[in-house]
Amino acid sequence: MTTGTYTPKPGAAPLPRMIAAQAALETRMLLRNGEQLLLTVVIPTLLLTLFSSVDIVDTGKGEAVDFLAPGVLALAVMSTAFTGQAIATGFERRYGVLKRLASSPLPRWGLMTAKTASVLVTEVLQVVLLTVIAFALGWSPHGNPAAVVLLLVVGTAAFSGLGLLMAGTLKAEATLAAANLVFLLLLVGGGVIVPLEKFGSAGERILGLLPISALSDGLRDVLQHGAGMPWGDLGILAAWAVVGLAAAGRFFRWE
Amino acid sequence: MRSKPARPSPDHHPSGRRFASHPLIEVAALVKRYGTKTAVDGLDLVAGPGVTAVLGPNGAGKTTTVETCEGYRRPDSGTVRVLGLDPVRQAAELRPRIGVMLQSGGVYSGARAEEMLRHVAKLHAHPLDVDALVERLGLGSCGRTSYRRLSGGQQQRLALAMAVVGRPELVFLDEPTAGLDPQARRATWDLVRDLRADGVSVILTTHHMDEAEQLADDVAIIDGGRVIAQGSPEELCKGGAENTLRFTGRPGLDIASLLKALPADCAAAELTPGGYRVTGKVDPQLLATVTSWCAQHGVMPDRISVERHTLEDVFLELTGKELRS
Fold first, then answer.
1. Which of A234-243, B13-22, B266-275 shows the lowest per-residue confidence on average (mean pLDDT)?
2. What global pTM score does this model have?
3. Complete DSSP assignment for chain A
4. A48-100: per-residue pLDDT in tens?
5. Quick one: closest CA in B to A22, which residue?
6. Which position among A90, B7, B58, B315 has the lowest Cβ density within 10 Å, counted as fewest Cβ atoms?
7. Which homologous superfamily does the CATH classification assign to the domain defined by B25-238?
């Protein structure tokens, strides 16, 4: 190389370009990771198809798919915003990726914005895929699309806060184990495929406070029963979002 | 030792920017504790343009000091200025101007080598040409290999490329050649020399004394959380112990006669039959004195050699020879 190649010419790229590049990279990393795809795509798709076609769980009156589709959409949000993001971020922290990026021109809030954008892009892909499959299975959704979008967004905020809190405080291996365990427990006990009534009235009341229950119940109210804005469920999700994001902001350790 | 071209002038940086107002790095009375352990204990360090090597035994406080300069750690007390900026409070201004190579990691395990480098380039306004950099560091053959499948040496070279791709003014390299094969080590050294020639300043932590001797304009030796010696490799090697001249000749030469010919502060001895050692201030005059004494006495001084005091000798003298835990 000729002399002058390395002559200093420092400067940060424009912020929108940095954030877009970071979001694109994070999304590629997620879509390339087999275990992540299992969580975010394969499991929700399988659950939706299997339980809609085979009468294993009593989903109440009406078509099974009308009960299941909203629950599986809630599960998809949880798999990306909570489980996937917690595991990925935990390992990024472990492997010094967060540390290296912290000395780059991309500010920390820019990194978090990019992560959120990447989660939202993935969720859009999930929602499109699951909606197409649900329609193929005879799904007939009702309700206000704006209420659905609002529920998904506030749910994403709630799960992101909890996922980042876990990733930023536990060891990567612990995050991996705990995030998968929580995914499994909430899949069963969060009204995704098993109606909460099955857990008795006390169980239903307690489990109903979980973010996954609030999201699946809220989506079901709108999509299955054509309800307006489910303020109660939105309130629960918003509370989780505030607590989770505040705790993550307070306790997250970058290395 | 290979001589280095003239050090970039502190007044006129090749970028045209004037740096006379403040040194690149100014650390004063830095203290950093982890729990009850004091990692850095009132450290003072000033680094100017060029290549500054930071040497020290494990646990001496090198990494803590460097990471404080990079903005990763907050000083417990003392001040740190890098390019005149506070690395914590003025991080947004500082970060685009520095390049950081971590000792390990820093890359998504699923990212391909070239993909990651291109990504870091995108975070900067005027990055280097990525293709040329990839070729320069021999990363072409593994450009599409994911990070976790790269060899240790390839991971090191990728980390180095990521540190320089943004065209920084100042680059921090943390043990850049640890675990590299000789070819890769040479490629890294050549790149550091080119960076320096183009006016990029480098802070280099290393355990390889020859690396510091080869590359550094300035060497700071850290031990016990303080800088215990600083100067050019030549200055550091000059002080302290004496240098040595060895030659072989026939056994039983008259040492007393040789000593008479030598300056008063020199010593001479026959260590093995026919193996002689002269210690003292070894300069061209001394060498001439020894060879002319040999000529007068009909001695053919075979295998005559001058042993310089190396940086490693100085380092071991200053930091002790016992192993650290």
1. B13-22
2. 0.84
3. --TTTT-----BPPHHHHHHHHHHHHHHHHHH-HHHHIIIIIHHHHHHHHHHHS--S---SS-HHHHHHHHHHHHHHIIIIIIIHHHHHHHHHHTTHHHHHHTSSS-HHHHHHHHHHHHHHHHHHHHHHHHHHHHHTT----S-HHHHHHHHHHHHHHHHHHHHHHHHHS-HHHHHHHHHHHHHHHHHHTTSSS-GGGGHHHHHHHHTTSHHHHHHHHHHHHHTT--S--HHHHHHHHHHHHHHHHHHHHH----
4. 999 988 877 777 777 889 999 999 999 999 999 999 999 999 999 999 999 99
5. B119
6. B58
7. P-loop containing nucleotide triphosphate hydrolases (3.40.50.300)
Mean of all residue pLDDT scores within chain B: 88
Most A CBs within 10 Å, among B51, B108, B145, B160, to test the A interface: B108
**Nearest chain A Cα to B137, which residue?**
A1
The Cα of B193 is separated from the nearest Cα of chain A by a number of Å equal to 11
Q: Considering the domain B243-307 in this protein, what is its CATH number?
A: 3.30.70
* CB proximity A108 to B under 8 Å: no
Angstroms from B192 CA to nearest CA on chain A: 10
Which residues of chain B are in CATH 3.30.70 domains? 243-307
Q: Do A10 and B166 lie within an 8 Å CB cutoff?
A: yes
Question: What are the tens digits of pLDDT across the range B223-267?
Answer: 999 999 999 988 887 765 467 888 999 999 999 999 999 988 888
What residues 48-107 of chain A have any CB closer than 8 A to a CB of chain B?
91-92, 95-97, 99-100, 102-107
Q: Tens digit of pLDDT for each residue in A117-150?
A: 999 999 999 999 999 999 999 999 999 999 999 9
Confidence tier at A2 by pLDDT (50, 70, 90)? low
In a mutational test of the A interface, the residue from B93, B119, B195 whose CB has the highest number of chain A CBs within 10 Å is B119
Pairs across A and B, CB distance < 8 A: 124
